[in-house]
């Protein structure tokens, strides 16, 4: 199958729980499927970090995104004005949306795999010509996670 994976973070190097999970998902899927990864890239990665995904992904589309304070505030404010939850506004990137639309317009994907619920709005960017099925990978049960965090606060 031809699978597009949309991740909120570039998973190389794979450090920390979410990045390890995305990396291992790619590694597992790549054994039997052709993968395209679309992910924002905030800091310049070394060629080794980009090359580490070459054995796993047929195509890697790193989308540059600024993590400067003003850029983050602009994304969150734009999301707020549109009525989005803050985390969706934080991860909203028109270049990601454009890349997803471009790729789904010119390639036939069998599956579009979305990492994290807050990335689900990118499905609206999928070309109307695409007949791909979608998979949403939930890393956390957010309500339970937030409840636990609240209980831990003094």
Topology:
Layout: E1 2-6, H1 17-29, E2 34-41, H2 47-51, E3 59-64, H3 69-81, H4 86-91, H5 94-106, E4 111-115, E5 133-137, H6 142-152
Parallel strand pairs: 1-2, 1-4, 2-3, 4-5
Quick structural summary:
With 154 residues, the protein is an alpha/beta fold.
List keywords for this structure.
154 residues, 5-stranded parallel β-sheet, alpha/beta, 5 strands
Characterise the protein shown here.
Helix content is 40%, strand content 19%. With 154 residues, the protein is of the alpha/beta class. Strands 3-2-1-4-5 form a five-stranded parallel β-sheet, with helices on both faces. The chain is globular and about 50 Å long. The mean pLDDT is 90.
Instruction: Give the strand tally.
Output: 5
Mean of pLDDT: 90
- Uncertain segments: none
SSE run: EHEHEHHHEEH
Give the biggest beta sheet: 5 strands, parallel
Total helices: the number is: 6
Shape: globular
The proportion of residues forming helix, as a percent range, comes to: 25-40%
Radius of gyration: 16 Å
End-to-end gap: 49 Å
Strand content: 15-25%
Strand order of the largest sheet: 3-2-1-4-5
Structural class: alpha/beta
